[in-house]
Amino acid sequence: MARSVVDVLRERIVSNEIRGGEPLRQDALASSLNVSRIPIREALLQLEAEGLVEFVPHKGAIATRISLDEVHELFSLRALIECETMGIAIRKATSADFEVSENILSEFDRMLVPGADMLEWGPLNWKFHESLYTPSRHKRSLAIISGLHTHCERYLRLQIQLTSDYERAENEHHELLNLYKRRESAKAQKLLRSHIKTTASELIRAVRNL
Q1: More confidently predicted of 158 and 135
Q2: Three-class HEC string of the chain
Q3: Are the beta carbons of 144 and 178 closer than 8 angstroms?
Q4: Are the C-beta atoms of residues 208 and 159 closer than 8 Å to each other?
Q5: What is the C-alpha separation between 49 and 209, in angstroms, rounded?
Q6: Stronger pLDDT, 106 or 154, i.e. the higher one
Q7: Do residues 14 and 53 make contact, with C-beta atoms less than 8 angstroms apart?
Q8: Rounded CA gap, 207 and 210, in Å?
Q9: Is the dihedral of CA 34, 35, 39, 45 positive or negative?
Q10: Could you give the CA distance from residue 45 to residue 22 in angstroms, rounded to a whole number?
């Protein structure tokens, strides 16, 4: 039950249906979702760990606001650890690993159009990136990267919504996979670093123009 509540509330916050700074009243949420306060409380604690909710003294739980400082931090961390992990993965990847990434990217291509279901976009984006790092078999690094993507999903969705930057994302994903398959590690890492930092820059620019 708590997991289901987490999914519902996460989607409402990530999609901006619940805006940053908006209070999350446990009684009201329990009533609207037809559950007791216990799964609501558990869900809010989980979302706090994901950076989407914060507990403020005398106010209770509120949805966190969009933070440009957090964008800088999250995407800088991604650039550092993902490039390193992908470099290791490229040396170990097999043809079967390539096929996994190709299949995900084919599915992703169908999503990168205006009007696409953004509920599916975020998980699929992570699935593609994850496929590039999994062959490294560095479990701790993969867990850290997964956490960073969870924190970034809100911003990634916002970036696509504000900039409609579908073509760049599609082209860079394809070029990244081509370099990956050719085991051109230095070029692949350079492109991935640029891909991550450009996404952050475009998001920051779009948010400042709101």
Answers
A1: 135
A2: CHHHHHHHHHHHHHCCCCCCCCECCHHHHHHHHCCCHHHHHHHHHHHHHCCCEEEECCCEEEECCCCHHHHHHHHHHHHHHHHHHHHHHHHHCCHHHHHHHHHHHHHHHHHCCCCCCHHHHHHHHHHHHHHHHHHHCCHHHHHHHHHHHHHHHHHHHHHHHHHCCHHHHHHHHHHHHHHHHCCCHHHHHHHHHHHHHHHHHHHHHHHHCC
A3: no
A4: no
A5: 29
A6: 106
A7: no
A8: 5
A9: positive
A10: 16
Q: Mean pLDDT throughout 12-24?
A: 86
Tokens read off for 209: 């123009």
The span from the CA of 92 to the CA of 168, in Å, is: 28
73, 101, 112, 129, 164 from 204: Cα distances, Å = 12, 29, 21, 22, 14
Phi, psi of 35 (to 5 degrees): -135, 170
Sketch out the chain's domains with CATH numbers: 2-63 (1.10.10.10), 68-208 (1.20.120.530)
The Cα 87–Cα 179 span in angstroms is 11
Collapsing DSSP states into helix, strand and coil, what is residue 139?
Answer: helix
Residues 41-98: tens digit of each pLDDT: 999 999 998 888 999 998 899 998 888 898 999 999 999 999 999 999 999 999 999 9
